Amino acid sequence: MNEMDQLREQMDSVNLEILKLINQRAEIVQQIGQIKAKQSMNRFDPVRERDMLNQITSKNDGPFQKSTIEHIFKEIFKASLELQEDDHSKALLVSRKKKPEDTVIEINGATIGDGNTHYVMGPCAVESYDQVDQVAEAVKNKGIKLLRGGAFKPRTSPYDFQGLGIEGLQILRKAADKHGLAVVSEIVNPAHLEEALEYLDVVQIGARNMQNFELLKAAGDINKPVLLKRGLSATISEFINAAEYIISRGNGNIILCERGIRTYEKATRNTLDISAVPILKQETHLPVMVDVTHSTGRRDILLPTAKAAIAIGADGVMAEVHPDPAVALSDSAQQMDIQMFNSFMDDIIDVANKFNR
Ligand code: PRE
After folding, report:
1. Which of 48, 53, 58, 122 is 20 to 30 Å from 263 by CA-CA measure?
2. What residues does ligand 1 touch, defined as CB less than 6 Å away?
3. Would you say which domain of life the source belongs to (predicted)?
């Protein structure tokens, strides 16, 4: 064996030593991480890192320079922090790591999360019994099981229509019962939950309340499914953590809903983050729906965006329908009338069938 080969052989065994030691170190890091998580301590500890660097560099006899050694160890600390963070997300109850099987939620005969496409349709806001009744009839005629409608409306302006409140929920319930539908409606205040549960089958938590932690906790204490919408400017990680608030209190029946995020783009009301769907499906075991109405704010692209949602693997599509959108008290530019809804449903069911979903 020549000298070069000998040196390389030595190097191979040193590499393996380093590998063993670095993973030994990683195991200690994981144990420290678990203690920190239990005690809700910050994982990053710059004082500890500085102490270790001082100790290590004071023992450094070269040939590497102090700055090089510091650089290498800083990289090790960084990787250690990431390892502690990974271990933490592993522990999330909504994560696939925790529960590999899909969560399937049965609501009024619709099994959301079962691989098929489900629909939640209805007016933006409940305005009258007659209005909801007309929409509910159309919804039922398309074989849909879930009726949506806003009774408590968190509006951008305090002078806009704020919804009919409990009376709106009563209207929804009456129309839904007549047509055999389940009711999905938004609740904005934990104090309304108990009374609202008399009329609701699914509690919606809207985008503006995605980080209303008291509301999330209250929704975690009930035994009805929750449809949680992504916040206007929420990252996927913040969205997942909002769901974790609900499941951590015992309610695991959560449907996530991508509804567009705020970007610089003005051609649509929000920017539909379609890639959030497969990411949420990979990261969590929860069903994921797409609200095409709020993400686009445009009737003319509801169908293509709904097709995209199905193609990318969403468990359902949500959209708004109003008997006469021109006179709707909210969101008149984006709701479909009943004729448009009927043809939208015919087309989208066709697409879902082609995808076998
Ligand atoms: C460790 C990791 C991250 C911290 O910023 C400091 C140190 C390390 O890798 O040594 C371990 C650790 O979490 C700790 O000692 O507190």
Report:
1. 122
2. 29, 32, 43-45, 48-49, 77, 80-81
3. Bacteria
**Which ranges of 229-275 would DSSP assign to H, the alpha helix?**
236-247
What global pTM score does this model have?
0.76
Beta-ladder partners of 94: none
Candidates 25, 81, 86, 88: which one to mutate for ligand 1, based on the most atoms within 8 Å of Cβ?
81
Helices (H) and strands (E) in the chain, counts: 12, 10
Domain shared by 191 and 327, yes or no = yes
- ipTM for the complex? 0.91
The predicted-structure confidence for 263-321, as pLDDT tens digits, reads as follows 999 999 999 999 999 999 999 999 999 999 999 999 999 999 999 999 999 999 999 99
Q: What's the sign of the alpha-carbon dihedral 73, 79, 82, 84?
A: negative
In terms of domains, do 116 and 64 share one?
no
- Residues 171, 62, single domain; the answer is no
CATH number of the domain where residue 139 is located: 3.20.20.70
Domain that holds residue 161: 105-354
* Position in ligand 1 atom list of the atom nearest CA 80: 9
Looking at the structure, do residues 81 and 109 belong to the same domain, yes or no?
A: no
Tell me, in angstroms, the distance from the centre of ligand 1 to residue 23's CA: 14
Same domain? 256 vs 208: yes
Query: CA 322, CA 128: separation in Å to the nearest integer?
Result: 11
- Residue 43 Cα: closest atom of ligand 1: 13
